[in-house]
Amino acid sequence: MLSINRNNKGINPVFPTSGSEFFLTAKFTLPYSLFNGINYETLGNQEAYKTKYDGTQAVNDPNGRVPLPGDYLHQIDPKVKTYEVVDTYQEASADQSKVDQKKYNWLEYYKIKFRGDWYTRIYGKLVLRTLGEFGYLGNYNKARGYIPFERFYVGGTGLNNFTMDGREMIQLRGYPDQSLTPISNGSINGALIYNKFTMELRYPITLKQAASIYVLSFLEAGSGFDESKPYNPFQLQRSAGAGLRVFMPAFGLLGIDFGYGFDAAEGKIQPNGWQTHFIIGQQF
Prior knowledge:
Blueprint: E1 2-7, E2 10-11, E3 16-18, E4 20-28, E5 58-59, E6 72-77, E7 82-86, H1 96-103, E8 110-123, E9 126-138, E10 152-154, E11 168-170, E12 183-184, E13 187-188, E14 193-207, E15 212-225, E16 237-248, E17 252-261, E18 273-280
Parallel strand pairs: 5-7, 10-11
Antiparallel strand pairs: 1-4, 2-3, 4-8, 6-7, 8-9, 9-14, 12-13, 14-15, 15-16, 16-17, 17-18
């Protein structure tokens, strides 16, 4: 993993009034598929990865054949996962679990993220913050496809809870958590690419050492994309709202935001409407 960071925000780290921060990260693995000798494009056609009867599949053979352990099966209806018995492995369906296990035995991918953050004093203590973010998860081998890990989940507070798949939560207020992430086959599988833009007007109430408090209003827009949703940097879900931040050395950063989502979340039709977000320990 490589990262480049430039930070000249000033003067108060809790409430910057000038300067900017740029952050670029590149995370990548070795392209194992270039030298492991496996043809992932024809993996599902090989005998070792065909579906065999193990006693758990639902078999509804049109010829009334009763399956025996080890018999090859052809999937009749993918929706209800029913099978029929066939004589040769060439006629059998690929066992997707075996194929995926081989595909993701050694994960290969590259992941790029960029964030640009600017602070500008408008008048007196009033400060404008502008933010742009971009992330992309790619692959080296199209036949092997994209890995199911390390993906982006857009929407909500962006708080990273404990996860085992390396997912990244991307904040976008005015919508529920992960609700702007593409839905494939009825489930949220994470985005391969996302972009997000934010404008905040900030005004401090107090910036004392014991406690720093400021209010803010924001405009925000962003979205996540995968294979089922072609990338369009202008196809964004928008929101607006206001919030409060409190920073105390003993507790860190605490805050609350009230955001209104002007567009529909993934899989919905109506605009999302009002959403309340509690912020704990995120960046200033």
